[in-house]
Structure formats: C-alpha cells, structure tokens
Design brief:
The chain has three helices and four strands; from the N terminus they run βαβαβαβ. It is of the alpha/beta class. It has a four-stranded parallel β-sheet with strand order 3-2-1-4.
C-alpha cells in the first residue's frame, strides 16, 4: 500500500503523523511511505532521517496522491 504523510498545516502544530521509526516499520511490512519534504521540521525530524528509514521524500501532491494519507 502507498502511504502518504503530508506536512501539518494547522497553526502551532509541531507534530508529524509518522516518525522515521514508524516509517521503517511500515516499510518492513511491505508498504511504500512517501513523506512531504519538510513534514518533520517542526518536530525536529529531517528529510534525511525519513530517507534513511526507507521513506521516499516527495512534494504535497505526492503525499496526497497515496492510497492512505496519515495526518495528525
């Protein structure tokens, strides 16, 4: 399954729906995880951390174009 994680847009929201550790677990289960570039910045998580966990870094359209979209 293709799972998308867009950046949160609510004012003051610092959380992100998926951590790199969760992305790694989803990837291990055979899913493809696409994270919008910069989605984890407010939570102090870099794009590089998501990429190291096996997630694909994408734009907003790529995150929302998934079978399942995860948001806070």
């Amino acid at each position: 399954m293709l799972i998308g994680v867009p950046a949160e847009t609510s004012a003051g929201e610092t959380r992100v729906a998926v951590t790199p550790e969760t992305a790694k677990k989803l990837k291990a289960q055979g899913h493809t995880v696409r994270v919008q570039s910069g989605a984890g910045v407010a939570a102090s998580v870099t794009d590089a951390a998501y990429a190291a966990a096996g997630a694909e870094i994408t734009d907003l359209a790529g995150a929302y174009g998934a079978d399942l979209v995860l948001k806070v």
